[in-house]
Design a protein that fits this description.
SET domain-containing protein; signal; SET_domain_protein; alpha+beta; 14 helices; 15 strands; SET_dom_sf; three-stranded antiparallel beta sheet; globular; SET_dom
């Protein structure tokens, strides 16, 4: 499976995935956006206001309020008492529809999400009257999306709900019957509305196992819902090709079940819109090997195809970045100069997606030093990029918002001098 999870590395607390091509590898990544114009989006506060209280009262799949189109098809596999069922809704997301292969308990949780019970939660999702891109056939790449207008950091490229969600626990052939599982995947696809089913069949799937399973395995993204891993298929994002230095970032919002893609840097008209399929911190040789073994192509991005001396310098910077990120948890004692060096290295590498974590590191080091304006500057920068990479509800974004507004009232304020005094008292 492909699976894009979203923000591939950084601060220890940032090592999360938000929707990345599903591949069984520790080097495949995870995703986040800036607030859009008010006419195009709900405000962040409105999104956050989707009450968890709405998840409090269970709704039976047999009740009149159930969103499912018909009685779920369920199967119990050998060596387990757990049932896995196919739940489908044609009405979901303004008739885009969805099929979910999961357990009854998890389906009950999902059907109580705002995505199902609060139509306003999906306002503007799955709709684009004037897309900022056009689809073209690209030499050696197949289909790709080309910007037809200038896109600036934070501009939304698209936002879509999944057409399929598959429970990761069910997709475990150690105790599942593979043939039964593939049959359930086919059932889930067959239950989609006709137009949505067409979108699924337009996806590429290298013939290996079964036409449906092959498309899922090649195009699914790893997501988390209620802290449980699932795989999801978003047909639209499959049109985005890989680049080791992408110009777009993505994340999955588990409350609205929406996958967002935004520009992470300026994208000029005529430029291909790209995302990364892997951890961009890997050196060139490892990137090429992973992309070839997992996706079957030889990366020809500008970084991978640069002169060997330039790629060696890039690998050297990446090694230094990796070493510096090991100090993320040491912000109380790390110098702001170290943080600024890390930012400079990321900028040299054009690694804009993980740069948000470096900004957060800098904000915390300046806060620990008691540098008010340094803390505010980098907290604001972190808010922008980490929202684009990790989503509207990311706890690090909330932390940086508090720091940007009242740095002196945060626990990091003057932490270094306090630590120095504590150490002196022990002597």
């Amino acid at each position: 499976m492909l699976l894009l999870t979203a923000a591939c590395v950084l601060l220890t607390s940032t090592l999360t995935s938000a929707g990345q091509p599903y591949v069984n590898s520790p080097y495949v990544c995870a995703s986040a956006p800036l607030p859009l114009p008010l006419c195009q989006r709900l405000s962040l506060e409105e999104r956050d206001s989707f009450s968890q209280a709405s998840l409090a009262s269970p709704v039976s799949s047999n009740s009149s309020s159930s969103p499912w189109a018909s009685q779920p098809e369920c199967h119990t596999f050998e060596n387990t008492t757990q049932s896995f069922c196919v739940y489908s809704s044609h009405a979901f997301a303004n008739s885009r529809g969805i099929s979910i292969l999961t357990t009854p308990d998890r389906a009950e949780y999902i059907q109580q999400l705002p995505a199902f019970i609060q139509p306003v939660a999906l306002s503007g999702v799955n709709k684009q009257s004037s897309p900022p891109y056009e689809e073209r056939q690209l030499p050696g790449k197949g289909r790709g999306l080309i910007a037809n207008k200038t896109l600036y950091r934070g501009d939304r490229i698209f936002a879509h709900t999944p057409v399929l969600i598959l429970d990761a626990d069910a997709d475990d052939f150690e105790y599942m019957d593979e043939k039964k599982w593939v049959k359930m995947e086919n059932e889930a696809t067959d239950r989609l509305p006709p137009r949505t089913r067409e979108l699924f069949w337009e996806l590429f799937g290298e013939p290996v196992l079964d036409p449906v399973a092959d498309r899922i395995n090649k195009n699914a993204f790893e997501i988390e819902i209620d802290e449980e891993t699932h795989y999801a298929v978003f047909p639209e994002i499959a049109r985005l090709n890989h680049d080791c230095r992408p110009n777009a970032a993505y994340f999955f919002d588990s409350v609205t079940l929406t996958h967002y893609v935004h520009a992470i840097t300026t994208i000029n008209p005529g430029t291909e819109i790209t995302i990364t399929y892997i951890d961009p911190h890997l050196p060139r040789r490892q990137r090429l090997r992973l992309l070839s073994s997992s996706w079957g192509f030889n990366c020809t991005c500008s970084l991978c195809s640069a002169h060997p001396r330039l790629t060696r310098e890039s690998d050297s910077r990446l090694a230094q970045i990796t070493a510096l990120t090991q100090h993320y948890d040491e912000w109380e004692t790390a110098s702001s100069e170290m943080a600024l060096t890390l930012i400079s290295l990321y900028e040299q590498e054009r690694l804009y997606v993980p740069l948000g974590s470096a900004y957060r590191f800098a904000a915390l080091t300046f806060c620990a030093e008691g540098n008010r304006w340094g803390a505010i500057k980098y907290a604001r920068l972190a808010i922008e990029l980490e929202t684009l990479d990790s989503g509207f509800r990311d706890p690090n974004v909330r932390l940086m918002k508090s720091l940007a507004e009242q740095p002196e009232k945060q626990s990091c304020w003057l932490k270094r001098s306090m630590r120095t005094e504590e150490n002196a008292a022990k002597v």
